[in-house]
Design brief:
Layout (H helix, E strand, L loop, with lengths): L3 H4 L6 H27 L3 H28 L7 H4 L11 H16 L35 E3 L1 H8 L3 H4 L2 H10 L11 E4 L5 H8 L5 E5 L2 H10 L4 E4 L12 E7 L8 H11 E12 L1 H7 L4 E3 L5 E4 L6 H11 L2 E9 L2 H6 L10 E9 L3
Parallel strand pairs: 1-8, 2-3, 2-5, 3-4, 5-6
Antiparallel strand pairs: 6-10, 7-8, 9-10
The structure holds S-adenosylmethionine.
């Protein structure tokens, strides 16, 4: 005889259910870890949780993104029908009720000391202190003191141009098949820094470029360089630039400083005109994880200082871009080879490792 569960009508999309199971299993593991901490005083479980949990979460997230992308179309005239399964009402499954019961039972066992905010139980802060995010501190091989973006680039500006290598970003831009640079009429350069990207675009014939950056000292250098028509001091997630005004949006070497990629991809979408391209050049997550190196500079006292660095997997980019509406048109990866070793001989040990990537996203319609 079929069980009650198998006879029940489907009440949520399979990926939705997977998400519920993930949430419950996470609460379950975290509860056990917190309970263990208060029972034994050991922080080992807490430390291990912060490493193991993100790995599991990202695996499930990637699967949940991949599965519907195989089965549904998310654009065109059928879009509202295609999305329908995701809007079905959700009812908790018996497994979820069991999970909640287990959680309540475990929480009742915890001592009153648990009334402290849970985030205080975790050391450091990594990627903005987000529990469950891919935190750079899990890979950090340098242990440099870390400062925020404005402080860091405000100091690095003194020798930024001498330390950033063209092979990281400009060489990748040179490899792109599209967009057709000469056909671009107006570009928004998000995280324009000292204007390197803007100058490269001018060289390709882009006639008008607006730049946005958070760091006034970087903007001052860009101003002197003169590659941009307009420079705005703002966050790339809220630029204040006009809607649909750009047929190219570009952002080079900044996303590792953002804790939420969704906001960048959504803002780029808002600025983009129909059929516009969004070109994003990024530090490769593999390199950040393998080298254990944050984005860093040497200050005037000779100290190596890190600037807040986050690890965004390729799947993070794909998920954030697709959610904003973008279609992937092109993707290149920059691998360390002779050109890199010529400018950084010490990086022979990283030969054949990918270090950067360039995505070209397209706004259809
Ligand atoms: C490595 S530099 C890249 C600059 C330039 N795109 C280039 O390729 O040389 C990173 C720049 O991003 C800026 N930045 C980082 N986070 C930002 C944010 N949330 N909003 C605006 N600018 C940001 C920094 O101020 C810095 O100028």
């Amino acid at each position: 005889m079929p069980s009650r569960l198998t006879r029940a009508p489907p009440t949520s999309a399979p990926t939705g259910t997977k998400g519920h199971n993930l949430a419950v299993s996470d609460v379950d593991s975290l509860t056990a870890v917190i309970a263990g901490h208060y029972r034994t005083g050991s922080t080992t479980g807490l430390d291990e949780y912060s490493v193991a949990c993100p790995r599991r979460v990202w695996r499930v997230q990637q699967f949940s993104w991949w599965m519907p992308s195989m089965m549904h179309r998310f654009g065109g005239p059928d879009a509202s029908f295609d999305r329908h399964p995701a809007t079905l009402p959700v009812r908790l499954s018996p497994h979820l009720h069991r999970g909640n019961h287990h959680l309540r039972r475990e929480l009742r066992r915890l001592p009153a000391a648990l009334n402290r905010p849970v985030e205080n139980l975790f050391r450091g802060g990594g990627a903005g202190g987000i529990i469950g995010a891919m935190e750079f501190r899990n890979f950090d091989a340098r242990g440099y003191r870390t400062v925020d973006v404005r402080t860091g680039y405000g100091e690095w500006v003194a020798n930024y141009e001498q330390t950033v290598e063209d092979v990281m970003d400009l060489a990748l831009l040179d490899r792109l098949q599209e967009p057709s640079w000469a056909a671009v009429t107006r570009a928004a350069d998000l995280g324009c820094g000292t204007g390197r990207t803007g100058q490269w675009l001018r060289g390709k014939g882009v006639p008008a470029i607006d730049g946005v950056d958070l760091t006034p000292e970087m903007l001052a250098v860009a101003q002197r360089r003169g590659a941009h028509d307009r420079l705005v001091e703002a966050d790339v997630a809220a630029t204040g630039l006009a809607d649909s005004a750009y047929d190219l949006v570009i952002s080079s070497l900044i996303d590792e400083h953002l804790d939420d990629l969704n906001r960048l991809y959504r803002e780029a979408w808002r600025l983009a005109a129909p059929k516009a391209a969004f070109v994003l050049v990024t530090f490769h997550p593999h390199f950040i994880m393998t080298s254990g190196m944050p984005t860093h500079y040497t200050n005037s006292a000779g100290e190596s200082v890190a600037i807040t660095t986050n690890v965004h997997l390729v799947s993070d980019h794909v998920a954030a871009a697709l959610a904003a509406g973008w279609r992937l048109a092109e993707l290149h990866e920059g691998v360390i080879g002779d050109a890199w070793v010529a400018v950084k001989p010490k990086w022979e040990r990283f030969r054949n490792h990918p270090i950067s990537a360039a995505y070209v996203w397209r706004k259809d319609g």
